[in-house]
Amino acid sequence: MDADNSQPAVAGDHYAQVIVVGAGFAGIGAAVKLREADFDFLVIEKGEQVGGVWRDNVYPDCACDIPSSFYSFSFAPKPDWSHFYARQAEILEYTEQTVKRFDLCNQIHLQRELLEARWDETKNEWCLETNAGVYRCRFVIMACGPMHVPVTPDIPGRDSFTGTAFHSARWDKQYNFDDKRVAVIGSGASAIQFLPVLRKQAKHLTLFQRTPPWVLPKMDIPVATKWQRRFARFPFLQRLLRRLLYLQFELLNSGLNRPAIVKRLQSAAMRNIRRGVKDPVLREQLVPDYTIGCKRILQSNTWYPALAADNVSVTGGVREIDGDTVIAADGSRHVADVIIYGTGFEVANPPIAERIVGKSGDTLADCWQGSPSVYLGTLPEECPNLFMTFGPNLYTFSSAFVIIEAQLKLVMRALTEARDQQVLAFSVGNRRNRAFNDELQQALSKTVWNAGGCSSYFIDRNGKNSSNWPWTTFRMRRKFASFRLRDCDVSKS
């Protein structure tokens, strides 16, 4: 993408009325809406191209687990998705196409990493220090994404490993897996995609999993050319498909609190295990001991057949690493040429909080102390004129685009009201924020995420669920739509 990357390394302050941090889907969506509303804005992005998580994750068979027609902007449909579940390269291409379609290239400054965002009380504006100079703005939208910083576990002896090691989000494209002994640590959403590919190349592959996931079958089929043409010629067909998918995911969300639905989902997952694995001992290793939905529900048709292959073995978590050997929790030793960490991302405590300094002079991370508390997952206390996209407690089993577009309506309404009413600064007060989060945590206590019997990345270091939205996205959209600046403490010029 030919975004504007022509600025000198340091050339004084850049100013815009609104600055968006991050050029993944949330940042691109924010830019589209800001342009439509005629705001003066810029987007700063630390990478060399747009795309966010779809730029960074390039491991084999990387793909979406939400249907393509639903995993895209409602205002920027793509009729020619090649698969019902799009692959990484095609999704990345869609981000670039969307930027060009809405003529955003000149507003996006690449290779601009945010080092610190500090609220300037005297000027009622944000000062954003980057690796390429200072940016200033009245309003800032933090579109940094929830799956941004890879987590690599602090395993004893990790640094002693004599082979090659990398996280799945930092894939080594040059590494040749032919005839290698591969250790995969983690069995989450990334591992179930790349492991079936690697096991065909490797001499032997060992999976180290602390907790097996629930994995449903995946309707992973190509989209016929005739249907691509129909979607292009009759856009209402794709809008209808999108609406049906939305309702299906809403039913899934609400159904996870109904025992009959949960039982049917677990039965489908058990059938998936039985189809792919005939060995009763291995089957036993792969059956989770928690309720489906407690962790992220995964989908794959190749995961279980891959684990049943002759050159694959499955064991428990890792106790330590000693030179070229990975030692499992049961004491078994496994020599490896390469270790791949499929251990996910920091989700419950957004790392960007360490770089945001609000009115109090403390970082958001210091204020939160490991348990984020944000009004509607969008407006943090002590941070006037700042919005977070996909912030704390907004994750649910639906398309990220439902959440992004609901948030963008809230953001744009607030920005437009602030412009029309000549508001200098606004922020959510402690009482309103506390009341919302108390209600949210009470609702979460009854959900499968909290009461399903698992330990997941949804739970923060203090044992609080700082990730999930306990209600439907119907309710999310209604609640966001009802937001007005009168809900905030406001100062005017």
UniProtKB/TrEMBL annotation:
Organism domain of life: Bacteria
InterPro entries listed in its UniProt record: FAD-bind_Monooxygenase_sf (IPR051209), FAD/NAD-bd_sf (IPR036188)
Residues making up the signal peptide according to the UniProt record: none
PANTHER family linked: FAD_NAD(P)-BINDING DOMAIN-CONTAINING PROTEIN-RELATED, L-ORNITHINE N(5)-MONOOXYGENASE-RELATED
Entry protein name: NAD(P)/FAD-dependent oxidoreductase
